Amino acid sequence: MSSGLPTISLVTPSFDQAEYLEATLASVLDQEYPRLEYVVIDGGSSDGSVSIVERCEDRLAFWVSEPDNGHTDGLNKGFAHTSGEIMGWINSSDLHLPWTLRTVAEVFRDVSQAEWIMGRQTVAAADGVPKAVFASAWNRYDFLGGRYRWLQQESVFWRRSLWERAGGRIDPSARYACDFALWLRFMDLAPLYHVPVPLGLYRQHEVRRGTGGGAYADETRRLWEDWRAAAPARERRRGRLVASVPGRAGDLWREALARSPLAPWYRHPHVVYDVARERWVVP
Length: 283
Hints:
Layout: E1 8-14, H1 18-29, E2 36-42, H2 49-54, E3 62-65, H3 71-79, E4 86-89, E5 95-96, H4 100-110, E6 116-124, E7 130-134, H5 140-144, E8 156-159, H6 160-165, H7 178-187, E9 192-198, E10 200-203, H8 214-230, H9 233-242, H10 247-259, E11 272-274, E12 279-281
Parallel strand pairs: 1-2, 1-4, 2-3, 6-9, 6-10
Antiparallel strand pairs: 4-8, 5-10, 6-7, 6-8, 11-12
């Protein structure tokens, strides 16, 4: 039944990713979520990508293949063709899971205060086989303290109202870390809620955009430094407190801090599924 479930708008930007694109599209469309608005923006590929998109065009809300100004431009172009209450994007080599969209819809339906969410960080090999699931939970104070490693973009979803409050577009000046730039703007407006199940697979391969170093990491660092410098001094002090203990001892310190009644500002908001009530709740 689709009663009460929101429309989910997804965008996939792509350029010369035919090797992975078909699996990405299938991972979204084969879920058969009844209120999906799926947009594909191809940057003028010449590797067979267009033929792949054409085979499923009757299931897409919009698609186009034409030269553009890169990844961020493709995303902004794609989101301009959407209208759903819930938004997200999945890059052209990553994967959703069979339950992703239904779970996302139910969480947003049941937890009205959640404005953006992220599932468990999950990494897959180049062949799409999952290899690792992480239990990381980040909040604003982790970021202020420099623990800003990454949020798994294909597992992040948000309400359109938050998108509009954040400017209604992705910063075109962020060439590599445009996702991180958007997360920082969201962090200023609403807490990130964590969902304790995987919602997407980040596929590791040689030509992926998000890597552990290089231009992406350099841009991430610059964005973070600018964002932290603009934060109130009190919040910067709290961020330093969060990051004050390194290593495993620091992880235990942060876990204790998250449970402490003396530091409610630090607690990671999260949702759990209440089996008896058959709904997602905030514990």
